[in-house]
Amino acid sequence: MAEIFDDWPEKYDQWFETPIGRLVKAYESRLLHDMVRPGKGERILDVGCGTGIFTLDLLAAGARVTGLEISLPMLRQAGKKAGDLPFHMIQGDMRKIPFPDTSFDKTISVTAIEFIEDGRAAVAELFRVTRPGGLVVVASLNSLSPWATRRKAAASGGQSVFRHVRFRSPEEMVTLAPGPARIKTAIHFQKQDDPEQAPAIERDGEARGLLTGAFLVVSWEKPAARRA
What we know:
Strand content: 15-25%
CATH architecture: 3-Layer(aba) Sandwich
Structural class: alpha/beta
Distance between the termini: 43 Å
Mean pLDDT: 92
């Protein structure tokens, strides 16, 4: 699985520098901050951290972040961006996270679950390494969004990275873990929309509470340990 991402670090980062990509990054970062609520000194595991696009936001909030990534080139890119900030890198697979139980205050995974067939098992791993009372946050490309439809078309057209994905709906995502979940979406505009018009489209989607935005985020609070 790692090799399908190894040629992507530069392409991935460059897309977020395009006019529409910068807007996407801004709205996705805002939603993630709202869902994760990173705090100073918190131990956060960023699973599938990629090139650190969203990792830097956690570090900026004062969190101590560990980045787990299956692709070594992407992980190295994240490390370069983090510089001297409290960022620990480790190459690994989210299906078998190499940390003991309850190691982190919060665990976050952004657009990595799409590449895992057994989503419940992967999310169970996120819960395992999160302390009781901690937070698990998972973001994915929403199957209800036209952005996912384009990715599927790209897969049929031969783009290897998208041949391995499984997009899920909001309904499917909340079933990946037991207990109550909080769910929100962002990116209600489309890739081809005028970047100057996109903010108005986004505000309308937010005001209406639509769950069809391309960026789908679900959070669960891990139950606190029961007293004997």
